[in-house]
């Protein structure tokens, strides 16, 4: 918390001196105003990528960007919102990635009352809050879970073992992305696979994933035929735990993370049944593009849109955004060739997954 | 003079054995209950899993026990330093190989321990000082890693992180060895005597000509070396490092020390108690996980155990004085 507070203070001091808050912003950036992005700490590489994408897109569109990080702490983020609003700074708009979706509602409402457009990102908005935000632009975690389920079901159809009972290792309790992915996954496997346990980890990375996988795999040896882990960092750790217990991933047990985030070696060597691209870079990029599209047109189309997963060209900056603008989750096969050939909006899977 | 001698004397044999006996009894009771109610619990595989789960927390908890015994309560920078050291180890291994990377990491860990120890000596508050250092360490980890994943490709590191000599993970061998070394250090070595006496009565230690500052520096250095070992093991196991590794693990280290019955006021306890505390918590976590208890319930129960253990040991230590 101290580091972020210090960072906030430093940025405020820099702003007070009239200096640019982003070294990446071009000289003309101030012409279109400042976009303020509230996000958790970029010590998480995915969030680091989100910021990079947001900065790149803002620079390209001629905006200055100011990123305010919290140290995975909603109370700190709430305080940052109050400080930002109290500064009276005129802004082009806000990008809001709450650390805790429900707990951050008060801050979201305060941002909306400022009159500036608010784009919510990463955390699927809570029903009934539509008046507090202009548009959502980011990942669809239901879709992420569904894509993972489809990869798993496809692998089950081809696998030497019969898929039956399995388990879900999910993100920590309270992380709404984890809830949504489990829901998307379970809806898709309903009647086809049996989930015997849903076990939360204490974190998002290999070390915490290994702690859980290393305990539930031996305890259910001979019973578990599949594992869904919500991202590839935890899935990679689960493959290690499986091997340590005499199981060959891809043969004796099918494992899917469903979101490329971490070491891709487990995908390309076939230990994971596949993955899907959820790009932190493009999530930040899309949030800024959505804000700019609203500023340009002054309107929002009703309903939702799944932005096309074209391999080469990124989506156009023209037109009005929809109320819900979902980042695509293109699946990636579990071979080196499939991995090398997959591209999204002009970037390779390697660029988007290994950061 | 008599009072001074009494207050700076290390605790008697019974005061040392009672906490260990209580933890051992708690472990036995928990094992029996788990064996009776949870068929998957009582297997050799699961026993290895529990010891393995206790190892990573336990190694840092052993280091933390030196800080507590020396009268400096706790350090709140252990997890952040481990994250920084993980990133440094990965970068150094890329450049120097596994041995060079490990040596560089241990050297930087020692420097971080000395710096924190000196700062605590000057500022006088270990909690505030290490909280600030923790922010510095996490920030540096973020800067050094460029908020990215630092990967390594080293066969030696991979062996170190994943091998199982005689069927036991390397982390568990290290845990056992470090616990024994820690016990020896506290009970038999001169530096251990300094830590205990500094923690037992700081004013008396100063009046006796002991360097309390040196004790603080030594305790912090030992803790940081523990963090370094855990960082090396973790990076070696997964072949990568990130700045947000070990997030939220400080409570686990402190819980192991408290459940182990090490006196909060300092001057009493042994690293073995912290090691047993880590094993007890790992047992409890495993038992709850196998029974499908939710994360909230697990957190509540472990927190409750810490509260009960802290109160019980505090009362026992009060009576033993």
Structure explained in plain terms:
The complex is a heterodimer of chains A (355) and B (321). With 355 residues, chain A is an alpha/beta fold. Helix content of chain A is 41%, strand content 18%. In chain A, the strands form four sheets. A seven-stranded parallel sheet of chain A has the order 2-1-3-4-5-12-11, with helices on both faces. In chain A, β8 (226-228), α8 and β9 form a beta-alpha-beta unit. By secondary structure, chain B is mainly alpha-helical. In chain B, 78% of the residues lie in helices and 1% in strands. Chain B has 13 helices and two strands. Chain B has helices at 2-8, 13-37, 44-69, 78-123, 126-145, 155-162, 170-188, 190-200, 202-207, 212-238, 250-259, 271-290, 295-320; strands at residues 150-151, 240-241. Chain B has a two-stranded antiparallel ribbon with strand order 1-2. In chain B, α3 runs antiparallel to α10. The radius of gyration of chain B is 20 Å and the shape is globular. Chain B starts with a helix and ends with a helix. The model of chain B is unreliable at 1-9 (pLDDT under 50). Classes of the chains: A alpha/beta (355), B mainly alpha (321). At the A-B interface, α1, α2, β7, α7 and α8 of A face α3, α5, α10 and α12 of B. Chain B: It is a multi-pass membrane protein. Chain B: It is found in: Cell membrane. Chain B: Keywords: Cell membrane, Membrane, Sugar transport, Transmembrane, Transmembrane helix, Transport. Chain B: Pfam families: BPD_transp_2. Chain B: InterPro entries: ABC_transp_permease. Chain A: Keywords: Signal, Sugar transport, Transport.
